[in-house]
């Protein structure tokens, strides 16, 4: 009975320490959100016109280490204490738990990182060049229809498309 108390305490401690890191990794920029580093920063802004727009699915792609690390820690701890917290069996079950937990953590992070996006094909009003921008979209964000005047904002490694003032 005492081991169960240690297991619960150990798992709760790991979750309490690692979960905030995983949540911090979930933030994504959209056409209407800005990162803290963009506040007060100068962004190049170019007028453009929407040629086409469509909804797309953005996959997790750049999965970090938080999901696999948390999964491995929880799986390893569960395997260790579940096997009796000592001896060869505990080491084997801790290793297996860490492998399985790491895989499940990776899959969970991939699923959590998947999101709705919008692909815009635009004509740059200054150069006439045709460009494509894919950006994360909020659930309620509507597609901008063809011929809508927009502003293309570029800064700090992120490009966003926003409707030009008076366009909607």
List the topology elements.
Blueprint: H1 2-24, E1 44-58, H2 66-82, H3 87-113, E2 115-124, E3 130-136, E4 149-155, E5 158-163
Helix pairs in contact: 1-2, 2-3
User: Regarding CATH, which class of the largest domain?
Assistant: Mainly Beta
Q: Which strand-content bin applies to the residues? A: 25-35%
- As for the number of domains, it is 2
- The helix/strand series, from N terminus to C terminus, equals HEHHEEEE
Quick one: how many beta strands?
5
Q: Give me the CATH architecture of the largest domain, please.
A: Beta Barrel
- The gyration radius over C-alpha positions equals 23 Å
Helix percentage range = 25-40%
Major pleated sheet = 5 strands, antiparallel
Q: What name does the CATH topology of the largest domain carry? A: OB fold (Dihydrolipoamide Acetyltransferase, E2P)
Low-pLDDT segments: 1-9, 11-27
- How many helices? 3
Structural class: alpha+beta
Order of neighbouring strands in the sheet with most strands: 3-2-1-4-5
Question: How would you describe the shape?
Answer: elongated
Q: Can you give the mean pLDDT? A: 74
Give the termini distance in whole angstroms.
65 Å
Give the key terms.
single chain; 3 helices; elongated; alpha+beta; OB fold (Dihydrolipoamide Acetyltransferase, E2P)
Question: In summary, what is this structure?
Answer:
The protein has helices spanning 2-24, 66-82, 87-113, and strands at 44-58, 115-124, 130-136, 149-155, 158-163. With 168 residues, it is α+β, with helices and mostly antiparallel strands.
Q: Can you offer a commentary on this structure?
A:
The structure is a single chain. The protein has 168 residues and is of the alpha+beta class. The protein has two domains: 1-28 and 61-113, no CATH class; 31-59 and 116-168, Beta Barrel (OB fold (Dihydrolipoamide Acetyltransferase, E2P)). It has three helices and five strands. The chain has helices at 2-24, 66-82, 87-113, and strands spanning 44-58, 115-124, 130-136, 149-155, 158-163. The protein has a five-stranded antiparallel β-sheet with strand order 3-2-1-4-5, with no helix packed on it. Helix 1 (2-24) runs antiparallel to helix 2. The chain is elongated.
């Amino acid at each position: 009975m005492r081991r169960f108390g240690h297991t619960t305490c150990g798992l709760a401690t790991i979750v309490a320490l690692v979960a905030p890191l995983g949540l911090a990794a979930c933030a994504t920029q959209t056409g209407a959100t800005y990162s803290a580093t963009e506040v007060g920063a100068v962004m190049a802004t170019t007028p453009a016109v929407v040629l086409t727009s469509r909804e797309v699915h953005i996959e997790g792609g750049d999965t970090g280490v938080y999901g696999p690390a948390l999964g491995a820690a929880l799986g390893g701890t569960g395997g260790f204490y579940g096997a009796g917290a000592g001896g060869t069996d505990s080491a084997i079950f801790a290793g297996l738990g860490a492998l399985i937990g790491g895989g499940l953590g990776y899959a969970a992070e991939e699923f959590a990182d998947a999101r709705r996006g919008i692909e815009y094909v635009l004509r740059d009003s200054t150069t006439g060049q045709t460009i494509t921008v894919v950006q994360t979209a909020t659930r309620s964000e509507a597609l901008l229809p063809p011929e809508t005047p927009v502003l293309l904002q570029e800064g700090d490694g992120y490009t966003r498309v926003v409707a030009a003032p008076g366009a909607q």
